[in-house]
């Protein structure tokens, strides 16, 4: 009787308590085990009665054990193991690459001015990368861009190479589309240069082309000025310096004022306060002729700018190599955009 009282009154706060209970009452060496041993010595006429009591005790103990186990488990779930007030583990989603973000922004700005987006091959022939763009054979201008050659051929297009600029898409577009043509052409380009913070063997450009009747140099300047204001803010200033490209005449380098970073610490701006963002000019008559367009009837402007450079100015990134190293710590910082 007293054992039965003990069993029913037992409470367990921890798993340890529960184990104590099991050892004490249920296991073979526990109190019940001992009583069953004693039962063997009891005279036959009392055995039936005593056995019945013992079985009841055993059932009570086992029932209690099951009950305590369940109680412990359910209280563990609600109080100790799970804290429902904790914020959930965030889902890590990817984000767009900074160069892609910049490319999208550039496209957005020019699309509003009526520019389409066009595309061309990265593996190109000499004709589209050089000859049609008015690079004379053996002209030093070809060496200005250290070309990766893939294959020497004598077929129609000449040598096969990795395009050194996106200007090849100007030719591809004008060959198949008559003016008016107004397009921007983003893409990857390749040059045989040693990799450093400021140079890479591949990078990205956006080419711009507008060919129609009466397109003037003033249109070129205002278009790029509008772009710079949209991209960097309305206080930006634009500067044009005379330059040379075989496929434009006249040609210019386009600089903008360095609004974001100044002084020696700023790798892209240096100390002058100006930073170059594009090469540009009026499409050379020979280029139009090479594409079957009459330069007496049509004129046009073209420009080419580096997407890395625009991105560097936008996000103050000092090292070009970061864009292609796939370091997650770098890439994650552009998460909120997009
Ligand atoms: N293709 C030139 C470069 O890579 C840039 C450019 C494009 C200049 C269009 C003028 C007109 O440097």
TrEMBL record:
Keyword Iron applies: no
Enzyme class: ligase
GO terms under biological process: phenylalanyl-tRNA aminoacylation
EC number of this enzyme: 6.1.1.20
GO molecular function, a single term: tRNA binding
InterPro entries: aa-tRNA-synth_II, aa-tRNA-synth_II/BPL/LPL, Phe-tRNA-synth_IIc_asu, Phe-tRNA_ligase_II_N, Phe_tRNA_ligase_alpha1_bac, Phenylalanyl-tRNA_Synthase, tRNA-bd_arm
Record keyword Lipid biosynthesis present: no
Residues bound to Mg(2+): 249
Cellular component per GO, a single term: cytoplasm
Alphabetical keyword list: Aminoacyl-tRNA synthetase, ATP-binding, Cytoplasm, Ligase, Magnesium, Metal-binding, Nucleotide-binding, Protein biosynthesis
Assembly mode: Tetramer of two alpha and two beta subunits.
Sequence similarity: Belongs to the class-II aminoacyl-tRNA synthetase family. Phe-tRNA synthetase alpha subunit type 1 subfamily.
Name of the protein: Phenylalanine--tRNA ligase alpha subunit
């Amino acid at each position: 009787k007293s054992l039965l009282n003990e069993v029913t009154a037992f409470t367990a706060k921890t798993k340890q308590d529960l184990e104590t209970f099991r050892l004490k009452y249920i296991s073979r060496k526990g109190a019940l085990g001992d009583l069953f041993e004693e039962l063997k010595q009891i005279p036959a006429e009392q055995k039936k009665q005593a056995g019945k009591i013992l079985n009841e005790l055993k059932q009570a103990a086992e029932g209690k054990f099951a009950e305590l186990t369940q109680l412990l488990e359910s209280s563990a779930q609600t109080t100790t193991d799970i804290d429902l007030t904790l914020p959930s583990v965030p889902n890590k989603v990817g984000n767009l690459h900074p160069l892609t973000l910049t490319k999208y922004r550039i496209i957005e700005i020019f699309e509003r001015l009526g520019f389409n987006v066009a595309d061309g091959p990265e593996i190109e022939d000499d004709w589209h990368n050089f000859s049609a763009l008015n690079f004379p054979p053996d002209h030093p201008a070809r060496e200005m861009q250290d070309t990766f050659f893939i294959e020497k051929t004598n077929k129609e297009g000449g040598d096969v190479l990795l395009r050194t600029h996106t200007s090849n898409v100007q030719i591809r577009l004008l060959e198949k589309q008559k003016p008016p043509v107004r397009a921007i052409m983003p893409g990857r380009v390749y040059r045989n240069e040693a990799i450093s913070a400021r140079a890479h063997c591949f990078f990205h450009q956006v080419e711009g082309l507008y060919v129609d009747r009466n397109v003037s140099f003033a249109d070129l300047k205002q278009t790029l000025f509008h772009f710079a204001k949209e991209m960097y803010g309305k206080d930006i200033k634009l500067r044009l310096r005379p330059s040379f490209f075989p496929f434009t005449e006249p040609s210019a380098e386009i600089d903008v004022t360095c609004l974001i970073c100044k002084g020696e610490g700023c790798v892209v701006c240096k100390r002058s306060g100006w930073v170059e963002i594009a090469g540009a000019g009026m499409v050379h008559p020979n280029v139009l002729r090479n594409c079957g367009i009459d330069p007496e009837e049509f004129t046009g402007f073209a420009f080419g700018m580096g997407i890395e450079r625009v991105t560097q100015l936008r996000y103050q990134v000092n090292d070009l190599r970061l864009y292609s190293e796939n370091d997650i710590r770098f890439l994650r910082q552009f998460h909120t955009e997009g």
